[in-house]
Design brief:
Number of helices: 5
Helix content: 40-55%
CATH architecture of one domain: Orthogonal Bundle
Largest sheet: 3 strands, antiparallel
Shape: elongated
CATH superfamily of one domain: Winged helix-like DNA-binding domain superfamily/Winged helix DNA-binding domain
Length: about 120
């Protein structure tokens, strides 16, 4: 990913409503979600939703397809993964492979007063 594309993506996500919208679409999975359903879930009027979806589309983070009368919006997972790779490509000075894989939970610390088994 080029720096300009990363900046566009980060800029699009640097707004509360768009970040909520993007996270909702990530949760919806590759099949996406109809615009009307997105508006219901986020409590947004159609013009406001359209504006924010346009910004995410311009940044290359979401795509839109028409199914009958519905517009279905879905995350562009290759763009999301490219952004994550761009942000972590020099992680810890050793490359992205040295960092935790995306989605891998960190090992929780041991409980402070855990009993030892005898």
């Amino acid at each position: 990913m080029e720096k300009s594309a990363a900046l566009a993506a980060l800029g699009a996500l640097a707004q509360e409503t768009r970040l909520d919208l993007y996270r909702l679409l990530v949760q919806a999975g590759p099949d996406g979600m109809a615009a009307g359903r997105i508006a219901e879930r986020l409590g947004l009027p159609p013009p406001t939703l359209a504006f924010h979806l346009k910004e995410l589309k311009l940044a290359g983070l979401v795509r839109c397809t028409r199914h009958g009368r519905s517009l279905i919006y879905a995350v562009e997972y290759p763009a999301m993964n490219a952004l994550l790779l761009y942000l972590t490509e020099n992680c810890c000075g050793r490359g992205a492979g040295a960092c935790l894989p995306v989605g891998e939970p960190a090992v929780p610390p041991a409980a402070p007063h855990a009993r030892r088994s005898a």
